[in-house]
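Hi L.,

You mentioned the student needs an example of a multi-chain input paired with its predicted structure. This one should do, with 306 residues in total across all chains.
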Amino acid sequence: MVVPEPGLPDRVTIYEVGPRDGLQNEATTVPTEVKAEFVRRLLAAGLPIVEATSFVHPKWVPQLADAADLMTGLVADLGDTARELPVLVPNERGLDRALALGMRHVAVFASATETFAQKNLNRTLTSQFEMFQPTMVRARDAGLTVRGYVSMCFGDPWEGAVDVDQVVGVGTHLLTLGADQLSLGDTIGVATPGHVRALVEAFGDAGVGPERLALHFHDTYGQALTNVHAGLQAGVTTYDASAGGLGGCPYAHSATGNLATEDLLWFLTGLGIEHGVDLDAVAATSVWMAGQLGRPSPSAVVRALA
Ligand code: HMG
Ligand code: MG
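Structure written out for the whole complex:
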């Protein structure tokens, strides 16, 4: 039953990260053709944005070492539609690889904390920007859009609670360097709703409205949807999610799956918030993917619909 709640947005954009954040942590290599089929099925389900892969160092994320092969195959198959799929690039080398394939949208990923900057990027909190600056300038000059992720926005496994001002500092730095949108990541899933509201408000106080923000929740403690609710109340209309709740970060071992796209779709549909995505088609894709990976989806909605 659809029962709208006053004061929430009418429509949201779902930014699907299953093929990238969802798969990057899988221990056994997923064949490139399975990844391509995953992307095609997610697009066919109506997901407006599907982040496809990462042009990172293949030794750092072996699962995505086939990024160029995957995108070459998808371009051969889907043409320019494939070039519209965002990809992660940490540095100029990654950007070069994306540009060689004609990709139109890239994302850099910053850390809000010192320890995770070192573990994930081999850079300090400060020197990560020296890597992003030329990458972002060249991407913008080439006409690409640049998303700026900020990781560990709510808590960090090594440093504990993360101060909202520190997150706002990293985020506004990325905007100064030319990011079109910030995705605020709860990499290890420790956020709770008051903290979400406080962070969105702190960005507002710094002149960054909710229309520039996306929220990226992991469901480690089962709080992802309640955090989405807080984000909706604060006016944020873009949410990252991963089909079937796949996911984790290889450099943050306490990171479990992302918010499942199906859980988000069920929640939005019940609130009467438009999203344009076929829930049954996404759930069927996750059941198929679970068969490929050899274990069931952790998503309650996928299980209930199956
Ligand atoms: P580094 O070792 O400092 O790299 O790693 P470097 O700049 O010193 O270069 C060393 C060698 O690597 C050079 O080769 C480069 O060419 C090569 P050599 O000259 O020695 O032959 N190289 C590359 N090769 C291919 N592609 C590249 C690339 N870059 C350098 N892009 C680096 C620095 C950033 C590359 C490394 O730390 C890295 O790849 N990190 C990626 C880690 C990652 O992907 N983590 C997961 C994504 S973040 C996440 O999941 C969080 C998020 O979901 C949001 C949330 O939940 O919070 C986004
Ligand atoms: Mg993530």
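You could point out the following to them. The CA atoms of residues 91 and 135 lie 6 Å apart. The longest strand covers residues 105-111.

Best wishes,
N.
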